[in-house]
Amino acid sequence: ALPGRNVTERSRTRETIKMHWLARLNIAGKLQLAPGLLIALLLLTAGAAYYGITQQQALIEDIHTHRIKQYQQASTGVAFAQLLIRESYSTVQRFIEAGKIDTPGLEEARNELLGMADDLLRHVKSSAGEAALSDEEKELYQQLEEESSGLRQTVVELFDSAASEGINSLTPSLSALRSQFNYVDTLYVKLV
Q1: Average pLDDT of span 88-117
Q2: What share of the chain is helix, strand, coil (3-state, %, to 5)?
Q3: Number of helices followed by number of strands (H, E) in the chain
Q4: Which are the contacts of 165, defined by CB distance < 8 A and separation ≥ 6?
Q5: pTM above the 0.90 mark?
Q6: Cα separation, 144 vs 188, whole angstroms
Q7: Which of 7, 40, 135, 155 counts the most CB atoms within 10 A of its CB?
């Protein structure tokens, strides 16, 4: 026999022995091995299920503590902005129906609407200070802060033009306010 053949036959014999270790066990050994393998597989499955449940719980907790809170804050901000635009329209309509602008009424309406604009701006700033915001949300809140400041400035311009130019200046100023509000509303929609 050739020396190369003996090496090959020996390695095949070793592989056969390695692969057939189970065949060499008697029935009693096989019956003892089966429950152990089954228990090991069950423990592996239980470990995977436990890991999955803990990951899911962490995700649900994140949604509950951060996403829902962000949704509520965005909804509150939209409500502040809608109140501001609604009251602005109502004020302008009152002056147009009266046919004139009285100075005490103008000053009172200005202070009321500027207070609403300040409330919106404070709300945006406090919402932007949340620690759990993503980079995209931080950028949106920065834009919201700028646009809310612009909205406040448009309210100032609305009343300044009404005081200096009279009732005819209210409609174009209100149109600018509406345009500014639409952009603020769009940013809030992106946040939600």
Answers
A1: 85
A2: 90, 0, 10
A3: 7, 0
A4: none
A5: no
A6: 8
A7: 155
